[in-house]
Amino acid sequence: MNTNLGQFNPLAITFFFVFVAISLGITYWAAKHTRSTSHFYTAGGNISGFQNGLALAGDYMSAASFLGIAGLVALNGFDGLIYSIGFLVGWPIVMFLIAEPLRNMGRYTFADVVAFRMRQKPVRVASAIGALAVVCFYLIAQMVGAGNLIKLLFGLDYNLAVLIVGGVMLAYVIFGGMMATTWVQIIKAVLLLAGTILLVVMVLAPFGFSPTALFEAAANKYGDAVLAPGKQVSDPLDAISLGMSLMFGTAGLPHILMRFYTVPDAKAARTSVMYATIFIGFFYLLTFVLGFGAMVFVGQDAIKAIDAGGNMAAPMLAEVLGGNAFLGFISAVSFATILAVVAGLTLSGAATLSHDLWVNVVRHGSADENEQFKVARASTLVLGAVAIVLGIVFKGQNVAYMVGLAFAIAASANFPALVMSMMWRRFTTKGAVSSMLVGTITSLVLIYLSPTIQVTILKHASALFPLKNPGLISIPLAFAVGIIVSLASPEHRAEEKFEEEHRIHAG
To answer: Which residue, 109, 168, 307, 415, is most buried by CB atoms nearer than 10 A?
Structure first.
């Protein structure tokens, strides 16, 4: 097919600049209200449950969701659904286990909760290592998606495209903080849902609005194999490992957990999860239709010709069905998606560096407000630079797959310690530190030894670790180490503070 992707596209650029102008306007407004660390990290806790639900959806419906899953389904058929389902089923865990206790007990980061009844310094250092590993892997996916998108919209060099994204994102995180980030995420969620619904309507209209007829057309074009599992994930253990990582990883993502501090109380936190689950579930059903739509209307060869990872399937589908104008709109929405998620990630990483490491470890909790604010902004600058470098280094990876690895690290490093600290009286400082470090290191080492790094990237003949995703090994291991070390090293103060923690849980 002939496509305008990769050529100068004035309409797409117009949509792009309109969104950037709106987001910078929001940043200017938010900067006037961002006068303290509380406002910088949590918007002063003044976001409503519904607003936070939309912002959570905006934060979660990332480039991996829109660009990556549509591409995976378009190239692999039914198997792409494992990511849609996996990304969604983590939300009930967040709703019933995590949201309320987190809102009642913490200030800025999930480490506030884990460290509540433990010795602060070792727990915060260990949690920071895990949180920053998750943030970095997640940033890779977003920056790769952004680089491809801007390159194809503007015909710019990939590296320059990544620099532009990093620069725009830094502008509104450094000046507008969580207030700007929240409203950019809300606007982006509305735009993304509207654009996706419109695109799905255009996909299904020629088939009498029957998804079944669309699937039949895909099977006629590429064979019945596209409707059967086994193309993307053929090993049952790999499927279980990926499913565990996606399900438990949601409850360990620092930028998602941080959003629960932006609401006034625990009830609003629970309400926001309910709204987020509705929006996100609906969206993931739609991405599945988009993937098959791209398979039928664009074709797998055309998608691979533009981007081997399949990340441009949704914008190409928009161009085929709606012409240049719709391509411009969908591309601008995709860019908004990436900017909003990168902003949330950078903010959570900055909170880890400044609040957990600088204020509570280096300064022993005695840094004044002005100092905390300066360190928060400096941390944001550092993470922005890291995001740009990672985006350039990991050029060409499928973004949904890279996010799957970030979820594996979150599920291994953060989720076990967070759950045990809230649920188990005998959990200790040594147990928490061991669990977080073992979870982080094991997941990182196994990712490096996996077929993706060893075979796909480094071009070796085989890999030492057979699974593409480490969750099946690293998540149970993190739980087991936390339990064994805690039982071997009792901590009476941590047990005594468990009762106090439960009173706060109750709200």
So the answer is: 415
Name the 3-class secondary structure at 131.
Answer: helix
Tens of pLDDT, residues 353-398: 888 888 888 887 777 777 877 888 888 888 888 888 888 888 776 6
Q: Name the DSSP class of 19.
A: H
Q: Domain coordinates of the chain in residue numbers?
A: 10-27+50-505
Q: Do the beta carbons of residue 219 and residue 227 sit within 8 Å?
A: yes
**Interacting residues of 425 by C-beta distance below 8 A, sequence separation 6+:** 495, 498
What do you get for the CA distance between the two ends of the chain, in Å? 59
Q: Which CATH architecture has domain 10-27+50-505?
A: Up-down Bundle (1.20)
Please give the torsion angle defined by the CA atoms of residues 290, 293, 298 and 300, in that order, rounded to the nearest 10 degrees: 80
Q: Which of 226, 140, 148 is nearest to 400 (CA)?
A: 140
Tokens of 408: 């594996």
pTM: 0.86
46 DSSP 8-state letter: -
**Which residues lie below 8 Å from residue 71, measured CB to CB, with a gap of 6+?**
80, 291, 294, 303, 307, 309, 310, 311, 312, 313, 314, 398, 400
Q: Which residues have C-beta within 8 Å of that of residue 292, sequence separation ≥ 6?
A: 73, 74, 77, 203, 211, 214, 215, 218
